[in-house]
Description:
The complex is a heterodimer. By secondary structure, chain A is mainly alpha-helical. Chain A has helices at residues 3-6, 16-24, 32-41, 50-62, 66-70, 75-78, 90-128, 145-152, 154-187, 192-204, 207-218, 224-231, 246-271, 275-283, 288-316, 320-325, 337-347, 351-375, and strands at 131-133, 139-141.
Amino acid sequence: MSRVESRATPPSPEEEPEAAGPEKARTPVATGPAETRTAEAAGSPETRTPEAAGLVAAVAADGTRTPVATAAPPEDRTVPPVTAPGPPTGRKSAARRREALAGLAFVAPMLVLFLVFRIGPTLGAAFLSLTDYRLSGDWAFVGAGNYARLLDDRLFWEALGVTALYTALYVPMTVALALGTAVLLHRTLWLRGFFRGLFFLPYVTSIVLAAVIWKWIYEVEDGLLNTALGGLGLGPVDFLGSESLVLPSIAAASAWKGFGYSMLILLAGLQSVPREVTEAAVIDGANTWQRFRWVTLPLLRPVLFFVLVIEAIGAFQVFDAMYVMTAGGPVRASYSLVYFLYDAGFKFFDFGYACAVGLVLFLVVLVFSLIQRRLVGREVD
Amino acid sequence: MKTGFTRAAAPLVLLCLAVLAAAGCGAGGGGSSANQVTVWMYPVIMDPKANAAYWGGVEKGFERAHPGTDLRIEQQPWENRDQKLATAFGGGKGPDVVLLGPDQIPQYQANGVLRPVDGAIRSARAAYRPAALKAMTLDGKVYAAPIYHTVTSTLYNRRLLAKAGLKEPPATWAALKAAAPKLKRAGIATLDYSASGEASLNMSFYPLLWQAGGRVFDESGRRTAFAGPEGVEALTFLVELYRAGAVPRSALTNANLFTDQALGRQQVAMGYTNTPADAALAAQAWGSDNVIVGPALGGPRKQVVFGMPGGLGINAAGRNTAGAERFVAYMTQPAQIAALGRAGGFFSPRSDVTVPGTGAHAKEYEAALAYAFPGEPHRAARQLQALLAPEIQAALTGEKSPREALTAAAEAGDDLLARQR
C-alpha cells in the first residue's frame, strides 16, 4: 500500500452504502482468499486492516481529524482483524492440496481450450514460418529463409512504418478521448449510466459497419464532412485519397469506434481513487488541474498502463478499418502489417511467409509492451 | 470434508469428454462420405430467394437422376472467396466440386488441388464456344466445365448525357475525351473507375490495356508485358481524365460496385465494365428510360470488354470424384445451362444453347458477348494485381508518371514471376 493511501480516513456515513458493498463479502476466515484482499482493496477506502486502524488512531490523537474518525459506523469495528495462520498441520496441508487440485480442476476446461485453440496454433504458426507450405499440403523445411526474405522485403518495411505511424496516431488519440470522457463521466452525476452506455455504444458496433459509415462521412463528393466544410467555404478535402491524411483519418474513425472500452476501464480507475486523497489535496490548496495532474493521474498510472498496452496492441493489429475504407491505399499509405500478412497468406498463398510476418508482429508487440512497461508502468509494482 | 474437487470431478470429466468428442467429430466430419457430393456455390443468382430455389431444384433433380447420391450444395459468399477456398484446400477439407473463374484456375492447378474435368464433359465438349473452353484450359487439360458466361459492357445515364447536350453516347476513347469537357460544364463526371486495391483489374485497368492493344503477360507467361507503350497509353488516357475531373476523385476507394459508387448515385455519366445486373439496378435507381446499354468500348486498337465463363472444378483430393464428375456432367447439359442462364441472367457458354433473353437489355449484352475477353489466365494473375493496383493509384495521385508507375509495377511483377515455383 502506498504512502498516499495510508493517510486514508474512514468513509463518512453518506459514503458507506457504496463502500460497504465489497466488504460484506468478506469473511473473517484467515485463509488463502484473505491474503489477496489487500491487493484487491488497494485504492479503495480500506480501513479494516490493523495497519489502517492504527493510522486512524494516530490521526485521532493528532486531534485534527477526530470527528471524521469517530463518524465511522459501528459495524466497521466489528470486523475482527486478520489473524495470522498457525503452522500448517499434516491434515491442513492435505486439505490445502485438495483445494489446489480443485482449483486446477475448475480452470482445467479453460486451460485445455486455451492450449488447444491458442497455444497450439501459435506453436503451429511458429513451425510453419520455417517452411514453404503449399495449398496441396506439401511442404519443405526452409529454416530461416522466410525471415531472411522478410528483412529484404521493401513492402514489409513500408507496412511496418505505416503500422508504427498509425499506432503513434491512434493510441494518444484514443487514450486522450477515453480519459477525457471518463473524467467528464466521473464528474457527471446526472444520467451517468445513460451517457456511459451512449459512449460505449460505438465499441460494440461492428468495425466494418463503422468503417463503411466513416467512409461515407469522409467522401470527397457529397461526404458529410466535406459538405460541412463546403458550408464554411473550405475544401473539398480528400481525406481517404490523400497519402498524408489517410492515416489520421482512419485513426480518428477507429478512435471513435474503440475509445469506449478504455473509457470504462479508466472510469473504474477514477472511481477507485480514494476521495480522501483529493479532499486532502483540496485542503492543501490544490486547484482542479493540480489535483488531476498530481493526485489523480499518478494514482491512475496502473490503469493507464493497462489501457495504453491494450490499445497499442490493438493498433498494431489494425486491419479491418483499412480493408474496408481504403483497401490499403492510396499507394499503400494505409497498408498495415496485418494487411501485408493477409495478402501474403490469402492473395499470394505464401503461408510460411505469412506465418513469419505473424511471428515478427508478435515480437514487435512484445518488445513494445515491455518498453511501455518500463516507461509507464515503472511504479506499478 | 467433501472438497470442491470431489464435487466438481464428475461434471468436469463429462465436460472434458464432450469437448474431446466435439473436437473429434470436427476432425472427422469435414470430408464427404462415399456417396455424398459437396458443392461450393456462390450467389450467382442475385436474388437470394431465386438463388435458393434454383439450387434446391438442382439438388432434387440430380438426386432423382442418380439415386443413392447425396448432393449437398453449400452456398458461400463472394467475399474472401479465394481466402476460404485456399484455407479449405490447405486443410484437406475442400468441397468435391467448386465454382471457379478462369483466373482462379492456374494458381489452384499449380498447387495440385484440381483434377481435370475432361472426363466429365466428354459429351458436351464439341458444343462449347471455343473461347469459353479455352479460358478454362491449361496445359491441354480443362480444369473447370463452363456452366454460364458473363459479359460486361458500357452503361450510360441518358438524363446526364442530355443535361450536357450530348446526343450520342460516347463509344470510343476519342468520343469520350471529346465529351468530357461538355459534361464537366454541366457539373457531371464522365467515366466511372475503380482504383481500390481490392477492385479486380479485370473490371478496371485491364480492359483499357486490351483496348490499347496491350497484354498483361508476355507470350511465355514468364514476364509482365503491361509496361509497354500500349500500357502507358492506356494509363495516360485514364490519368488525363482523372486530372481533368472526368473520372471522379472517389475512384481511389471505389471497388467495382454499382450502388455505392458515383455511377449509381448519378454523379458520373457512364461506366465501361458494367454487368446486366448493374443495368437492372440502374433501371430501378434512375428509371428504365434513363438506362442505355451500349456496345463494348472501343480503344485505339481494339473494341473489347471483360466477360468470362464460370465453371465447375473438381477437387483432386475429393473422396467422391466419380460422383463429382457425374454432377459436373449433369450441370453441363443444355437444359441446365438454359435454366441457370434464365435464373441468373447469364449467357450460354454452349453454342447450341441460347438463353431466352429476359432482361431489358439482353440483346445489347448478347452483342457485346462477341467482344468478350476472359482475361489472361496465369497462376500469378491475382497476385500481380496486388502489385499493380497501388502503382495505378500512384499515377492517379500524380506521385508517379504513368510510365514510372508501370515500370515500378513491372519490376515487382517480374520478381514475383521469377519466384513462382
